[in-house]
Design goal:
536 residues; alpha/beta; TIM Barrel; Double Stranded RNA Binding Domain; 3 domains; eight-stranded parallel β-barrel; three-stranded antiparallel β-sheet; 38% helix; elongated
Length: 536
């Protein structure tokens, strides 16, 4: 098994992606995550371009990285400025890192139209810069920007640019598909040709995803002989992003027989992918290969039946190999196998006969009304308990009244805001309790009232907090009269669960989901139903 060097540029190229912002401390944190994962190079940024990256390299000197080589990024020297006087190059040396990546143009078009210099002058810049840096750093990666476009435009000149870098002493030639439009078969062919031209120099690939080929192009380059792959966590980067290392790494290790990470680290992949999304405050892509929540989610009854017998019938790798998990979804497409698996997962004993059929039929009826249980497993567990005649009713609703007083939205100078009041009256056995609460909307006011009553009678729910609230129109086209589906996420500080409600009245749908949230918390801990209020 040959080793493919993983060059992570999340902290540099990845931060050029829209909505990606990292503080210095966050960059340090991500660098340690990558080092623990076992990538070979961590490109920390361009110290000569902005204060944040300069600050990162200053702080990074205080840190210890066990495996990865921290790498600083920069450009060839400015035209007319010697290397000794180029401040950007000086900042690379000041970073005091074991590796440096330097980029230069490989396209006549880019040289003449963007740099506005002659092709010959560009060759001088490459040679001078690489040679100067190589005498001052341990390892140098030369990024041949716009290489594939330049090679197709003028192959002789593109090769001359690589030759200048090789003569300067570059350790790696990273061929860049900067515009992201090259096809995989072109990548493989050209990488093979460059390997034959420069047999003594290692070849790398830097691909972008503008044609949805970033991962495919990286793997094609490895087939062509590349031994370094540059990319980012989850494919973040400028425009459509960079090639996604989270998909590339398992493909290299599980499909192509290469090593890419330290031994035993592949199972951390899902954790790393989701941690990074959390750090940059992005919702993880549920459909992302290998690490997404849906990557090993099965819904069709036939599929679930097969997976329960032999997982490889519908899974190309084991979820555990990349740190993910198998999920069985319940919907109107489900069969008895889905329900049996999910019930077992939830710790519910269903028989093989009437209970299962009744529960499955009820689920399909509810799905037809607009319910979805894929993100509402707490509601599903309550439904299964009801099918077995074992769902407790912890309280009865005697009155639930919500009033909202609106203000003139066109006259904000009045300084008034909408005022909503909820009146709630619940029964616990033969005792009643009521509460009047105000909120910024009907759901908020009703939720406050319910929480205040329930925590007095069931102290176990005192720590329940609603963390997310989503409303989705079920039957589009009916305007404000459409049915809506409300999904709620709740937590007690230790665990998190989801519930669902559906109605043509958004408050009623929200109420149903909130009731499930509290009743699930009580059912989960086997709290007995109260016939009288808790002792004071």
């Amino acid at each position: 098994m040959s080793h493919v060097h993983i060059f992570d540029t999340t902290l540099r190229d990845g931060t050029q992606g829209e909505s990606v912002q990292l503080s210095i401390n966050e960059k340090i944190h991500v660098a340690h995550l990558l080092d623990e994962l076992g990538v070979d190079y961590i490109e920390g940024g361009w110290p000569g371009s902005n204060p944040r990256d300069e600050g990162f390299f200053t702080e990074a000197k205080k840190e210890r990285f066990n495996h990865a080589k921290l790498t600083a990024f920069g450009a060839t020297r400015r035209a007319g400025t010697p290397c000794d006087h180029d401040p950007s190059l000086q900042s690379l040396i000041a970073a005091e890192v074991p590796a440096v990546a330097i980029f230069g143009k490989s396209s006549v078009f880019q040289v003449e139209e963007i740099l506005r210099i002659t092709p010959e002058h560009n060759l001088e810049l490459i040679l001078d810069t690489v040679q100067w840096l190589k005498g001052r750093v341990d390892e140098l990666v030369y990024d041949a920007e716009h290489f594939f476009d330049g090679y197709k435009e003028n192959p002789e000149y593109a090769v001359q640019c690589l030759q200048a870098a090789v003569e300067g002493g570059a350790d790696f030639l990273a061929l860049c598909d900067t515009n992201g439009g090259t096809m995989p078969w072109e990548i493989e062919r050209i990488v093979k040709e460059m390997g034959a031209r420069f047999p003594q120099t290692k070849i790398g690939i830097h691909a972008h995803n503008d044609a949805e080929c970033g991962v495919a192009n990286a793997l094609a380059a490895v087939r062509g002989g590349a031994t370094m792959v540059q990319g980012t966590i989850n494919g973040y980067g400028e425009r459509c992003g960079n090639s996604n290392l989270i998909s590339i790494i398992p493909a290299l290790e599980l499909k192509m027989g290469h090593t890419a990470l330290l031994p035993g680290k592949l199972s951390q992949l899902t954790h790393i992918a989701r941690s990074f999304d959390e750090i940059i405050n992005q919702v993880p892509d549920g459909r992302q290969p290998y690490v997404g929540r849906s990557a090993f989610a099965h819904k069709a009854g036939m599929h679930v039946n097969a997976v329960m017998k032999t997982p490889t019938s519908y899974e190309h790798v084991t979820p555990e190999s990349v740190g993910n998990e198998r999920r069985i979804l319940i919907s109107d497409l489900s069969g008895r196998s889905n329900l049996a698996f999910k019930a077992k997962e939830l710790g519910v004993d269903l028989d093989d006969g009437a209970e299962t059929r009744e529960a499955l039929n009820r689920i399909k009826e509810l799905e037809n009304e607009g319910y979805q249980f894929e993100e509402a497993e707490a509601s599903l567990q309550l439904l299964l308990a009801e099918a077995r005649g074992q769902r407790p009713r912890y309280f009865r609703v005697l009155e639930a009244d919500v009033n909202a007083v609106l203000v003139d939205a066109l006259r904000p100078e009045d300084g008034r805001t909408a005022n909503t009041r909820a009146v709630l009256r619940l029964a616990f056995g033969d005792r009643e309790a009521s509460n009047v609460s105000h909120g910024n909307g009907p759901v908020n006011a009703l939720g406050k009232a319910m929480h205040r009553i329930l925590r007095e009678y069931y102290p176990q729910v005192s720590d329940v907090r609603l963390t997310d609230y989503k409303v989705r129109i079920v039957n589009t086209g009916e305007g404000t009269g459409a049915a809506v589906r409300v999904l709620i996420r709740a937590t007690d500080g230790q665990r998190e669960w989801g519930t669902v409600g559906v109605s043509r009245n958004v408050v009623e749908a929200s109420w149903a989901a909130m009731v499930d949230s509290y009743e699930y918390r009580l059912l989960r801990d086997n709290v007995p139903v109260l016939e009288a209020p808790a002792a004071e």
